[in-house]
Amino acid sequence: MDQVNWTIVTEFYFSDFPQLENNSLLLFIPLLFIYIFIIVGNLLIFFAVRLDARLHNPMYNFISVFSFLEIWYTTVTIPKMLSNLLSEHKSISFIGCLLQMYFFHSLGVTEGLVLTVMAIDRYVAICNPLRYAIIMTPRLCVQLSTGSCIFGFLVLLPEIIWISTLPFCGPNQIHQLFCDFEPVLRLACTDTSMILVEDVIHAVSILTSVSIISLSYLRIITVILRIPSGESRQKAFSTCAAHITIFLLFFGSVALMYLHFSVTFPPLLDKATALMFAVLAPLFNPVIYSLRNKDMKNAIKKIFYPQKMFNASGS
After folding, report:
1. Percent of the chain scored above 90 by pLDDT?
2. Quick check: 28 pLDDT over 80?
3. What DSSP string runs through 6-68?
4. In this structure, are residues 181 and 98 in contact, taking their beta carbons and an 8 Å threshold?
5. Pair type for strands 173-174 and 91-93
6. Rounded mean pLDDT of the chain?
7. E-only strand ranges, 107-265
8. Which residues are within 8 A (CB) of 139 and not within 5 positions of it... i.e. 6 or more apart?
């Protein structure tokens, strides 16, 4: 196609959202409540860890970092989804689409790295407890958290810059609930064989993190099973259960979303996978980390009833 005849695309249209007359409010209201719950729940976890000195240890610090990332991770996509459900013009600018892809995936990569660091932290705590305080120093924890963020936000830059240079001449309809690499790349008026390279890059990074985390927890479970005391064994299992659940939810949805390569899912399944990845997996984070953890529940109660908790601890 002659480049002179190209019509430059300045915005993309989300074609898979229901129109107002199709009862989109029935989807808007539950999605709004889910978003509010995610934001409030993760904020409570973040401030509970920061304000309660008893939770100032590596494990809870990593949990607070993960919760902070979840707030922004969902904010990148869900408000735009809510807007599209109520708007007749369900579109996003070209620059807005690039930014949504960049921040969504940068935050996702960072979360994956933080989950990997959390698995390593639990491995050291359970498999090498005598050296835990020496290895997992506050300085190292800050370095690991900061390094995860820096790497997560740098590794996606070349990909986004490359996509920004591609010609888009129409059609401009994205068959997804938010801007994502594959749906956007398929709209480019050029060779799209690079999609396979994108799939390979994503697969290698995902499988590397999954391998490290899986090996860490397999080793942890092996060590826990050797603990003679039933009470100590149960406490160790309880501590790791939340981490393993979050790991399975996060990487399970990631695998469904990005490890199917050229296999085409039915449209409905594709949208359901996207919702699980972007909405449902983050929904369970505050539930798992707050309801299953006694220390976290006490710290959250302390936010609402500080005087009562102070009197209880002093008596």
Report:
1. 34
2. yes
3. PPPP-EEEETTSPPGGGTTHHHHHHHHHHHHHHHHHHHHHHHHHHH-GGG-SHHHHHHHHHHH
4. no
5. unpaired
6. 84
7. 173-174
8. none
